[in-house]
Automatic annotation (TrEMBL):
Keywords: Signal
Family recorded in the similarity comment: Belongs to the virb1 family.
Gene source species: Wenxinia saemankumensis
Top-level division of the source organism's lineage: Bacteria
Coiled-coil residue spans: none
Name of this chain's protein: Transglycosylase SLT domain-containing protein
Signal peptide stretch: 1-30
Bilayer-crossing regions: none
Region: Disordered, residue numbers: 262-282
Amino acid sequence: MRTTMTTRSIPGGLRGAVLASLLGLPGALAAQSAPLPSDLAATATSAPLAPALAATAVVVPRPAARPELAPPPVNVGLPPARPRARDPYLPAAQWNDESRGPLWTRVMMSALEGHGAEVPATIPADIATWCPGYEQASLRDRRAFWTGLMSGIAYYESRFQPEVVGAGLYHGLLQIYPSTADAVDCRADSGSELQSGTANLSCAVRIMSVVVPDHDVVAAGGRGIANQWGPMSHGWVRDEIAEWTRSQDYCQIAPLDTVPRPQDRPYALLTTPGPAGAPVRG
């Protein structure tokens, strides 16, 4: 039978020495204890540390770092992209003298380039009445025409007051009905949201992108823009707005002298004799 000796069976004077040897305490502490008998010393020095003691001796938790002392992250990737420069072009619009007018103009120009791109791509059948140079104009000038046109309508709809509510039903610069806004998936589809000038104009472009391509007119026969905005149903309003849009730079027909002339023939071709026997023109 194997006999297991514990520290309880060791005399009091020897117990400290056994523990010091098992735990690997400094020699100075071990020296203060009485020397061990040869059989106990061999057992103490050859016995491995208990698993619990070994784990306690090796795994020492490190203190958590203080967030305020942590170094800031270093961006080692590509530099952030710079925002696209804003187009400095500000076409004529009837609200441009208002404090927020230039912003409204840029919002409409941007919307007509984005979700309303189908509007300037359309050439309405009655466009000559409104903008004679539209057909040959650039897309930017076409967007300018539609922006100027809607600014004229906004004057008759709201006098450029974004918070106006008409008959308790129609809201904002262009007096949009919330149900109409919802039908064309406008982000602003409630009365309070449509009283934001920029949201109202963005929604108006969504409405335009439905009626202008579908009807293929600006306002003839009560269709197109006239189908959605009441002032355009009055002949005198249409005449006043059309007179204004026709006078703007973006609606002018380019003069003929701006058309590039064909390149002159090289002088050598003019002085080179033709083949023998070719008739000579007088």
